[in-house]
């Protein structure tokens, strides 16, 4: 191919290099090798020794004068005439001398700005170019950090952790892939969803790194609106949230893609995959959300999964809940319950799915994909959700809800990709922490998206399970995947009938416990208590329905808290009843005394249907949780979070399920209206004679301007953030079709659960059981409890197998 063709360097670049850019080896890495742990980033002779503080955090004050400095410099910017590069506006402007040296190459001393006026799918066709590609670098790892309006604290938490992970890659001097020059194989890309929505302190922090300069941006190039502002720099510093700047442990190739308008996360990923990765051709892509903090070496462990397993198409690590210093956030029962839920998912669910080879969801906040595996149908299916959510394509409510969990669709399409046999893996050694909702309304809103998306995505994958047989997997693997589909179908049925099963479990438990007046746990008032509990449950379901249909969680905060507290009290009564029933049965068998622990007494106790069914169900759940946690050497969440999760279980089963079902018409992530901007100025071509291309006039900053703005931004970071109350825009009403779909689905959902409750609590069913199965417990209760036991045992088996396979390197 000739230079200048789409996907290849422009004519002004030869041999894959920029005329002003030296080879990567010219950066100054020495040949001396030192132990990995003691010398991360060894050999770098850039600004100073890694960790050297270039600028201390300024004293805290109320005003730093940044706005005045910014306005003054914006007025005095230098006007330059530049030729467009292949019809595209590209500006290279010096960064502040505080963070570079004059004798370094341009990738360290000049920030490269590109005003992209095209759709991300046309990025290469429109002959845009990125610095690492112009330098001819082979990219092994592309890391994307997606953000909306996250603050500087969350950015520091994620970006600095990523930098430390990359520094660890450079410390692996004996690796065939990494080593001292390993940083040249990694590109970190931040994609911010909307220029005006981006947090100002977020951008100031990037300005201190040299990655962002507001003064060079334009909103139109030759009357074409700028879609994305792309900034590139190989940064040499790490910045703290208070403005302290220190030399990083290795250089980092950083790119900021600041989208002009809000186009949502899928569009951010489309810029990453279809524009940037399409040109850089990385081997592995890692997806992170700003606010997610990967632990030390986590990115290496994720990458290593692909290096060790050629058929690994995707992988995820363990996402943990950020519990704060001294785990103080676990004081909040909602955070503690989520901490327990996350932990048990990472102990039971993810290992089982990894053994199958198909993880139903690789979380977008912390996951990785082999770029080659994503080509074709997986990415096409993944990005279909963007058109659905933007309204460009009308696919109906089913598809709209399904694409609330587009990461699940991507996982299914990847494993089901015809003839390629890709697998998904869980990498336990790769860990990352993230914040979870600590307020009930935010929690309900988040789970609405998760539950609706996962429900419809599960239906989609189950309906299309036949594609697994053409996916190129081995025959035994296909059988495993087929079994997983059946397992998922059972889980789906349990989830859909969750309210009925919860009600019936309470009903059978109380009925059994209060059947004998001599051993009534409520002193002879068992029947009255049973009626109160059941009526309270029915009332709570009705209240949740009314709240879900007519109000946002933010507007019904007090009511939802009252419902959750009442459900927790009912759960406490149910746990007391179960414990009392077990004690009475044990006492009747003589097991409450040491002398009574004989084989005959134990056998007699096991023969009691009421005892056996309750104990088997509870043991299969709670005891297996304990055993699995101990096997994984992670028992502490049982101590800190188990009780909170136990009492909030009815909230998960009833409140979240009803709200999600009642709002299937809401297909938004919280719609963000796009607002075209015209406040940055235009770049229009002028002149051009005798066949020569014209030039554009643009305003840029000098090195002195950059230094003054840098210093002012550093002072500004010491000014305490002014907390502003969030004002949410009113949610746009759904279309009539979506509302009708919502109503019909909700009626079916309530009808199915109500039929189960009415039938299995009817006098007909009692007479049938008494006539056909005299002296035995209710068969539906037995089936429910034994099914719970079987599912729990299967998850535990998968968890144990995962550890065995991990020990032997599979």
TrEMBL record:
Enzyme class, UniProt record, top EC level: transferase
InterPro entries the record matches: Chitin_synth, Chitin_synth_N, Nucleotide-diphossugar_trans
Q: How does it sit in the membrane?
A: Multi-pass membrane protein
Protein name, per record: Chitin synthase
Q: Where is the composition biased (Low complexity)?
A: 13-24
Which Enzyme Commission number(s) are on file for it?
2.4.1.16
For the keyword Membrane, the answer is yes
What does the UniProt entry say about where the protein is found? Answer: Cell membrane; Cytoplasmic vesicle membrane
Q: Where are the bilayer-spanning segments? A: 450-466, 486-510, 530-550, 562-586, 614-633, 645-662, 746-765, 785-808
């Amino acid at each position: 191919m000739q230079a200048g063709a789409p996907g290849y360097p422009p004519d002004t670049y030869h041999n894959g290099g920029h005329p002003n850019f030296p080879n990567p080896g010219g950066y100054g890495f020495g040949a001396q090798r030192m132990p990995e742990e003691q010398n991360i980033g060894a050999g770098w002779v850039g600004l100073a020794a890694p960790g050297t503080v270039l600028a201390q955090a300024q004293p805290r004050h109320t005003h730093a004068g940044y706005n005045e400095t910014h306005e003054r410099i914006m007025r005095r910017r230098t006007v330059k005439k530049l030729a467009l590069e292949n019809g595209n506006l590209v500006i290279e402007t010096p960064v502040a001398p505080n963070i570079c040296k004059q004798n370094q190459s341009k990738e360290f001393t000049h920030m490269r700005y590109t005003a992209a006026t095209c759709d991300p799918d046309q990025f290469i066709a429109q002959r845009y170019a990125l610095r690492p590609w112009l330098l001819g670098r082979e990219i092994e790892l592309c890391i994307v950090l997606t953000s909306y309006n996250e603050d500087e604290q969350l950015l520091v938490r994620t970006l600095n952790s990523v930098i430390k992970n990359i520094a660890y890659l450079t410390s692996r001097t004996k690796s065939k892939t990494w080593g001292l020059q390993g940083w040249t194989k990694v590109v970190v890309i931040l994609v911010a969803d909307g220029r005006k929505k981006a947090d100002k302190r977020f951008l100031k922090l990037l300005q201190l790194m040299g990655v962002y300069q507001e003064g060079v941006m334009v909103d139109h190039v030759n009357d074409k609106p700028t879609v994305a502002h792309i900034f590139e720099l190989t940064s040499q510093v790490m910045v703290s949230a208070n403005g302290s700047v220190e030399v990083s442990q290795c250089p980092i190739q950083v790119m900021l893609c600041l989208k002009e308008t809000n186009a949502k996360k899928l569009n951010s990923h489309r810029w990453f995959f279809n524009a940037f990765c399409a040109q850089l051709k990385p081997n592995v892509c890692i997806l992170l959300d700003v606010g997610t903090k990967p632990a030390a070496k986590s990115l290496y462990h994720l990458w290593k999964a692909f290096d060790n397993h050629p058929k690994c198409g995707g992988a995820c690590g363990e996402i943990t809940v950020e519990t704060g210093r001294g785990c103080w956030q676990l004081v909040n029962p909602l955070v503690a319950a989520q901490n327990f839920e996350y932990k048990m998912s990472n102990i039971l669910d993810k290992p089982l799915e990894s053994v199958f080879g198909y993880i139903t969801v690789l979380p977008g906040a912390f996951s990785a994909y082999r770029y080659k595996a994503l080509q074709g149908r997986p990415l096409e299916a993944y990005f279909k959700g963007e058109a659905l959510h933007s309204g460009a394509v009308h696919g109906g409510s089913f598809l709209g809800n399904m694409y609330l969990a587009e990461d699940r669709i991507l996982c299914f399409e990847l494993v089901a990709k015809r003839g390629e046999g890709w697998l998904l893996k869980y990498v336990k050694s790769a860990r990352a922490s993230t914040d979870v909702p600590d307020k009930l309304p935010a929690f309900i809103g988040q789970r609405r998206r998760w539950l609706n998306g996962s429900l419809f995505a599960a239906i989609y994958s189950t309906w299309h399970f036949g594609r697994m047989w053409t996916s190129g997997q081995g025959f035994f693997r296909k059988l495993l995947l087929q079994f997983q589909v059946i397992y998922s179908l059972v889980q789906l049925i349990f989830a859909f009938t969750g309210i009925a099963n919860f009600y019936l479990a309470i009903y059978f438990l109380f009925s059994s416990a209060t059947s004998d007046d001599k051993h009534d746990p409520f002193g002879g008032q068992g029947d009255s208590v049973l009626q109160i509990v059941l009526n309270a449950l029915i009332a709570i379901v009705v209240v949740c329905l009314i709240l879900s249909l007519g109000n946002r969680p933010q507007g019904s905060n007090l009511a939802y808290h009252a419902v959750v507290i009442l459900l927790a009290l009912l759960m406490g009564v149910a746990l007391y009843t179960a414990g009392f029933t077990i004690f009475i049965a044990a006492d009747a068998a003589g097991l409450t005394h040491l002398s009574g622990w004989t084989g005959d007494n134990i056998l007699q106790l096991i023969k009691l249907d009421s005892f056996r069914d309750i104990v088997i169900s509870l043991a299969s759940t709670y005891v297996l949780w304990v055993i699995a946690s101990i096997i994984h050497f992670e028992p502490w969440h049982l101590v800190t979070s188990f009780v909170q999760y136990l009492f909030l279980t009815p909230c998960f089963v009833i409140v979240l399920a009803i709200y999600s079902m009642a709002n299937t018409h809401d297909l938004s992530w919280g719609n963000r209206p796009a607002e075209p901007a015209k406040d940055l100025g235009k770049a229009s071509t002028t002149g051009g004679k005798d066949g020569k291309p014209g030039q554009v006039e643009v305003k840029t900053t000098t090195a002195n301007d950059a230094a003054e703005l840098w210093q002012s931004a550093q002072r500004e970071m010491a000014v305490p953030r002014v907390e502003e109350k969030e004002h949410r825009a009113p949610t746009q009403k759904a279309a009539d079709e979506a509302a009708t779909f919502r109503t019909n689905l909700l009626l079916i959902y309530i009808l199915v659960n109500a039929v189960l409750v009415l039938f299995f609590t009817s006098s007909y069913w009692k007479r049938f059981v008494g006539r056909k199965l005299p002296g035995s417990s209710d068969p539906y209760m037995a089936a429910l409890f034994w099914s719970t036991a079987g599912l729990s045992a299967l998850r535990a088996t998968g968890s144990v197998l995962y550890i065995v396979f991990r020990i032997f390197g599979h």
